[in-house]
Amino acid sequence: DAKTTQPTSMDCAEGRAANLPCNHSTISGNEYVYWYRQIHSQGPQYIIHGLKNNETNEMASLIITEDRKSSTLILPHATLRDTAVYYCIVTEGSGNTGKLIFGQGTTLQVKP
Amino acid sequence: GAGVSQSPRYKVAKRGQDVALRCDPISGHVSLFWYQQALGQGPEFLTYFQNEAQLDKSGLPSDRFFAERPEGSVSTLKIQRTQQEDSAVYLCASSLLRGLGGELFFGEGSRLTVL
To answer: In chain A, N or C: fewer CB atoms in 10 Å?
Structure first.
């Protein structure tokens, strides 16, 4: 699986957009970008995923660069409840066993 | 409930004891995964089931770890002769689809402390 690089930690003011970057320079053509988050003492929660097009759902937006070597997760209006560790994961989309390789993630602290 | 349920939520074992951790996936979910999460680290893959078949167990750290899902629903992760390094949160996740074609739903985990 391709590896990802994320900043260790980030701060964001409540109500502002949180932009979480992820580098995945060795991604191959059939590999998807997934984002999960883990709030303290809970299991990871799926946020969004994409292949090459930008994606948006009720939680967030995912912007993938044209060369697919990096992506940004955007939380448009961060709240205190968005404080969590955010994991960027690259893995094969179909026919795969679903082996998510989590890495260290980015700890996002949303401040009032 | 509608989510993935794990029990016990907390388990304290003496070194050398056997433990069994249970996972009730979301009804109808085909795929089931076990992960191990050490303190301050991201979750690490242990094993994967598609229905009752264990298709990948490459992440199990030793032969002391054993997982089963005999009827394609409930799964049990068993750790024999526990060691201190087994202390971690054990996470179970399920997915409606075979393999990875959508989101995984995680339980809240079972925290194992080996003394």
So the answer is: C
